[in-house]
């Protein structure tokens, strides 16, 4: 209900521009993301714009209010604690554990002096040793399919792709694509079913400040789309962000269970 109200609410009384409170907030947040502005600079910019607009304008006053405007959109982010040795995630039946069930490493850092003499099970809260961020895939797919133009693109591989010349222009031209269609005919019968490509690699978000730090984003590309859109940033979804400081190595499988649960539901 709040989104509908903000979408219809003019930016200020007698506003003749096309912007509503919601559209102006979305455009400014998109510009913030594209330009890499800090929250502090964005809040200062909102204050400057508010002084330029009429007194009764509806523009958010700071980054917190701007995020509250778009909060009902439902694109949640889950913060999940992990073992610092990449053994397990503290979720489902293990969400209340205070130490790793495999290597017995503590869940929380011993940040305060009063915690030094306590056993791991006695430390109820604090700063976790390691965190993984999960961005659920299903709500993001729903958002794409809610737009008729976007939904049509997911049928491009079946309806608009050239198939008569035998050339390899799209993943759908590959033998493996046809093998999957033969193995799972029910899946292949619905052309909108998404074919995902998963990729991951380590990166250092701190640049040269800490050359030993390694954070791992897990990305999903959608191969239903035309080849000139498959690798566009708009259609590449970050699903998991594994915090450093060290790379997970083969233990990255532990983190993939977050994504696999959603993919099993979609399947």
Rg: 23 Å
Structural class: alpha+beta
For the sheet with most strands, the description reads: 5 strands, antiparallel
Give helix % range.
25-40%
- Terminal CA distance reads 32 Å
- Average residue-wise pLDDT: 83
**How would you sum up the global shape?**
flat
What is the H/E string? HHHHEEHHHHHEEHEH
Number of strands: 5
Number of helices: 11
Strand content: 5-15%
* Strand order across the largest sheet: 1-2-5-4-3
Low-confidence stretches: none
Features:
11 helices, 36% helix, alpha+beta, 5 strands, 10% strand, five-stranded antiparallel β-sheet, 267 residues
Structure description:
There is one protein chain. It is built from eleven helices and five strands; from the N terminus they run ααααββαααααββαβα. The model has no long low-confidence stretch (mean pLDDT 83). By secondary structure, the chain is α+β, with helices and mostly antiparallel strands. The relative contact order is 0.10. The protein has helices at residues 2-8, 21-35, 39-52, 63-70, 137-145, 148-153, 156-159, 175-183, 185-189, 227-230, 253-266, and strands at 78-82, 130-134, 196-200, 216-222, 237-242. Strands 1-2-5-4-3 form a five-stranded antiparallel sheet, covered by helices on one side.
């Amino acid at each position: 209900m709040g989104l509908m109200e903000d979408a219809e609410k003019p930016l200020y009384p007698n506003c003749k521009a096309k912007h509503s409170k919601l559209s102006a907030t979305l455009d400014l947040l998109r510009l913030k993301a594209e330009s890499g502005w800090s929250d502090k600079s964005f809040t200062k910019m909102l204050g400057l714009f508010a002084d330029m607009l009429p007194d009764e304008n509806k523009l958010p006053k700071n980054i917190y209010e701007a995020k509250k405007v778009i909060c009902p959109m439902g694109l949640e982010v889950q913060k999940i604690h992990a073992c610092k040795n990449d053994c397990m995630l503290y979720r489902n039946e293990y969400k209340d554990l205070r130490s790793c069930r495999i290597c017995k490493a503590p869940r929380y850092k011993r940040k305060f002096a009063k915690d030094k003499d306590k056993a791991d099970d006695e430390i109820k809260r604090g700063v976790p040793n390691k965190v993984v961020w999960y961005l659920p895939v299903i709500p993001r797919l729903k958002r794409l399919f809610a737009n008729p133009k976007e939904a049509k693109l997911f049928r491009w591989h079946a309806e608009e792709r050239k198939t008569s010349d035998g050339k390899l222009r799209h993943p759908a031209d590959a033998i493996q694509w046809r093998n999957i269609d033969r193995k799972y005919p029910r899946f292949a019968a619905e052309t909108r079913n998404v074919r995902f490509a998963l990729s991951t690699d380590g990166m250092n978000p701190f640049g040269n400040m800490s050359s030993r730090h390694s954070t791992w984003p897990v990305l999903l590309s959608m191969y239903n789309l035309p080849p000139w859109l498959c690798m566009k940033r708009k259609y590449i979804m970050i699903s998991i962000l594994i915090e450093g400081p060290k790379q997970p190595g083969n233990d990255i499988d532990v983190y993939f269970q977050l994504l696999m649960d959603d993919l099993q539901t979609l399947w």
